[in-house]
């Protein structure tokens, strides 16, 4: 384990940025933090998490897939991709770091999504422990420890220092190139900080929330539950929950006529939208109740059934904070989970 004074963090950022692109969470508006490419003088936010997750780095909201140039009967197919530059994402929280593993199971399974794969190969993730978890957090529900956030390098702030511990080969490579700025310290230097974080977790409002009532094999139990109707009645179908969610992976592919060719692009989609899964024969989910049910059944039943019991939620709390009608996965779990009591 190594450390650097918090007063020298900008020097650390500058040294990283000399080698590869660096992105940090920074305040972009009052109450809003986003990941931005670091520039000299940019300060890292004190907010717990960004409004949108770090998912965008590997699965961006929109991306060009292929271009077509049409000349008479001749069609030229053009791959618009360029080699992704190496980059570092600094300050990723444990929940977002876990979300990458969930997305990996989707995009890196056969057939591999090479667009996603390329970005993952070039990205190095430096996580930051959550010194002050918020009341909307429930990552511990899904076995995530914000005191040991994972990633390629884990970091902690404590008593005027930033502590860094390499986890993977990528992480060791990153820190080895920064050794002139870092000093060695005992491996147990952040144990008190870890215990403090875990103590806060036990006091959070959602500390007792468990996923025990859900998982693979529960489709028949919950699919026809009468509770979906009351749960979904106020849902606006706005898709806010899916756009701030770090694990949602639905997308649409569309063609755009540029006037001198056709551009095929991918963009995020939402199972909460009325035209989601719409086909020539119609839409298999005609009501908001059915679309609402799809979202939460996928997180709590379908995904774990096909992924070794891993849930499709990381408890980041963004949907709890952002939903305009205060409906979220926590309320769904509590309401449906009553059937187990």
Characterize the structure shown.
With 341 residues, the protein is an alpha+beta fold. It has two domains: 2-51 and 83-201, no CATH class; 219-340, no CATH class. It has helices spanning 9-19, 94-107, 114-122, 169-176, 191-201, 219-223, 227-232, 240-244, 288-306, 318-322, 329-337; strands at 2-5, 21-29, 32-37, 62-71, 74-78, 87-92, 123-128, 153-158, 161-166, 183-184, 251-257, 262-268. The strands form two sheets. It has an eight-stranded mixed beta sheet. Strands 5-4-12-11 form a four-stranded antiparallel beta sheet, with no helix packed on it. It is globular, with a radius of gyration of 22 Å. The N and C termini lie far apart (46 Å). The model has no long low-confidence stretch (mean pLDDT 94).
Overall mean confidence score, pLDDT: 94
Q: Reading side by side through the largest sheet, how are the strands ordered? A: 3-2-6-7-8-9-1-10
Query: Over all CA atoms, what is the radius of gyration?
Result: 22 Å
Number of helices: 11
- What would you call the shape? globular
Question: Percent range for helical residues?
Answer: 25-40%
Report strand %.
Answer: 15-25%
Number of strands: 12
Structural class: alpha+beta
Domains, number: 2
Reading the helices and strands in chain order gives EHEEEEEHHEEEHEHHHHEEHHH
Uncertain regions spanning at least 5 consecutive residues? none
Q: Looking at the chains present, what oligomeric state does this protein adopt?
A: single chain
Measure the end-to-end span.
46 Å
